[in-house]
Amino acid sequence: LLATGEQVGISLFAMACRARGVPAVSLTGAQAGIEAGGAHTRAQIVRVRPAKLLRELRAGRIVTVAGFQGVTEARDVATLGRGGSDLTAVALASALRTKECEIYTDVKGVYTADPRLVSDARKLDRVTGEEMLELAGAGAQVMQPRSIEVAQRFGVSIHVRSAFHPGEGTWIVPKEKTMLEKAFVSALALDKSEVRLNVTEVPDRPGVAASVLSALAEKHIPVDMIVQSAPSRAGVNAISLMTPRAFAAKAREALAPLARRLGACVDIRDGVAKISAVGTGFRHQPGIAARMFEALAAHKINIHMIVASDLRISAVVDAHHGETALRALHKAYGLQRRRKRR
Q1: Of 98, 119, 146, which one is at a domain's C-terminal end?
Q2: Parent domain of 201
Q3: Would you say 170 and 110 are in contact if contact means Cβ atoms under 8 Å apart?
């Protein structure tokens, strides 16, 4: 049932092409040779066998393929999860050995921040796959992360552009193709879909953190921003992490037996937001982190958690400060749209 929408869509598109006198054919994921494995709704593409697709192309037909789906070894339909059509498109581009894949969507490209929240957000001409992966992990929903990983692995450049406006969109390109000179901070992302999970009164001994994360992993609970604090008193510390709100109850249930054995406490805090700056060279530019903290302090925004890498700095703040923090950092990093000279 989940896969039928795409199958209806490709059939209607092929019929519309034929009505205009253009030869076209529609193929399901199985007919296009997309083989998948793993759990239904979260399946992964194993390989693409494009022989039938190539025959149709050589015959001069437009080929429209159902996204979001593949076929298992048992010949069952398996869906690829949210954003699976992006993954299908990139996988087909790779299988057909083309170096480019165009994704038409309802936005004009990738912006320095969500333009619905930041009025002077600027569309980026290009961004690296690494940066885009970090943005996706930070909450930006322009592209599915798995599709970007495939594009990186097989050297496919992705052009994200609007289906409603003609102009150029944003190119997501391999690192070696980017400009040598660029701003250190490329874009910001705000994510209000996660909760903060705190495990306190944790015994300060080797293996305990591994037990906490293993308990979550066994239940397939995704986590982000893992922070272990220094002991507040002899023998105990705390572990904090972020997880999607939809997994909050499942996470508490998964940790309950372990918490009882350790004498620890599990607390879930909703009403938080993750604000992230994404770019390059952060590790060698401490001023980037300092600017974030200064901008948030100037707006009296308290930071609950901080995680930094060479490509991203993320901070957790109260949810009601999220949009204010986003606008403040957008201005602090000079990401706003350039005014045209008269």
Answers
A1: 98
A2: 194-269
A3: yes
